[in-house]
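User: Can you help me understand a structure? I only have the sequence.
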Amino acid sequence: MLLKTHKKLWIPLGVVLFLVFVISSIPAIWGAYLLTRGTGIALSGVTGTLWNGRASLASVRTVDQEYSLGQLSWSLSPLSLLTLSPCAQVAAKLPMQTFDGELCSGSGGAIKVRNADLLLPVALLQPKLPVPIQGQFSTHINELELRGNVLLKLKGNLTWNGARVNTGTNWLDIGSYGAELSDNGNNGISAKLFQLTGPVDVNLQIELAAPSGGKVTGELAAPKAFFEAANAIDMLAMFAQENRVDEAGKTHYQVDINL
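Assistant: Let's start by predicting it. Here is the structure, written out as tokens:
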């Protein structure tokens, strides 16, 4: 009786071990398919296995541009395959640009990002900005969900370190800033921008509508002499109006911009 019981246990165990061996030998190209299906991500130079693979070059396409992600590697979660929403821990790296987080492919071409850290140079966003700026963006994404180019969910935060703005005559060092990010419930982005360090107090609300447009409202404050010394008064007048001077001697500027 005991021998028969052992046989009953060994048979399913053997089947499981065989399946693990077969699945572990599936080439990485299948993992690449799961990661790129409907996500806008393209991979080349794919090696490894379904569970642990890498690509020598990865890129992602948005509405109007394609961005390079550099070398990419992934580690697929086996249990996620049972839910038909495969998830993988993904890392991508370029000089001054990194990504590390969980990426899931959902139904209908949806892509979900969770608990991810992203580092990228400000220069990548320069074409969309009205004035030249410099610095480094670091972002933590708690939750992000996209379907194609449509934003469904967003929760996270962003830090702009080593922030610099070109006034037209020179570069102005303005410190570091943070932003709380969320979706606005209508496929757009809502961000609250505030000062971390530096001479300029910032309290701005940024609304980016879908598919385009938006507005920036709020207030900037600093000693007027700071802007005068930097020859930044004319640039400031392009998007802000002088409002009041507080007891600390800081001049407050009201910001109201339509994007």
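Now, to help you interpret it: The chain has two domains: 1-76, 106-258. The radius of gyration is 25 Å. Let me know which part you'd like to focus on.
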